[in-house]
Specification:
Blueprint: H1 3-6, H2 44-66, H3 69-96, H4 99-105, H5 110-121, H6 151-170, H7 176-204, H8 212-220, H9 222-264, H10 266-271, H11 278-300
Helix pairs in contact: 5-9, 6-7, 6-8, 6-9, 7-8, 7-11, 9-11
Length: 307
Amino acid sequence: MDYTAAHGGVGQQPTMRLRNSPVQGPDASQLFEDTSTIRPGTHGTGSYSNRHAGQQAGDFQGQSILSDPMSNLAMAYGSSLASQGREMVDKNLDRFIPISKLKYYFAVDTVYVGKKLGLLVFPYMHENWEVSYQQDTPVAPRFDINAPDLYIPSMGFITYVLVAGLAMGTQNRFSPELLGVQASSAFVWLIMEVLAVLLSLYLVTVNTDLTTIDLLAFSGYKYVGMIVGVVAGLLFGRLGYYLSLLWCCAAIFVFMIRTLRLKLLSEAAAEGKLVRGAQNQLRMYLTMSIAGAQPLFMYWLTYHLIR
């Protein structure tokens, strides 16, 4: 049997293709849509067109809302309400907390702070205790050592709390709660002292230019002596504490007497004469009471810190 005849002759070759080659011809069809050319995150041209059209529609709606007269009127009304509310808050805040006046009490410099601390510790050689004025307005504290300030009292209060924490730490009884109680009690005593002085001035009907901030400043100067006493107690023991505190108590007493005497007797000092009688005695007693209360507070707030 001829080999060529059995396989259909020489001219007929069998149809052959590679295993992985695609099927060609008009009858060959793909079972699935070729999506290899579509980028990830897209869903075809139709979905992109719809999304782009939706974005344009949203932009058009936003522009129409902004161009609406009612929307513009509402925005203008809201901004006016906000500005009126801000002005009201500033006015009420300045009435209860005079921010403009507080700037005066913090107008200090390094020279003033150094001289004022020296005056608080050694006031015996100072002669002129009157506050300087310029066109019926007291000059800034940095130009007048007699002017009251709030920088030294505020820094003194913070330093006192820190020194109290240090003293408690050396005695192995420090805790944040105990330090908070110490700071709160000192602050409450300060507020009570100022309120008591204001009530006394009201009852005595003293015509003075002392303000509440002035009283707060003068009452806060005692923290300087308290710090000196506690630090001396930590370095030299109880003897150093009592000696330094005694010196600072005498110094603050003299300072308060010479300062408040002019403030409480400002009406008589302006007339150039000394007012006699019951009214003058009440003023002098009030001055002595305020000055004498400073050493008591100094000892009360520091004696438990030295053991």
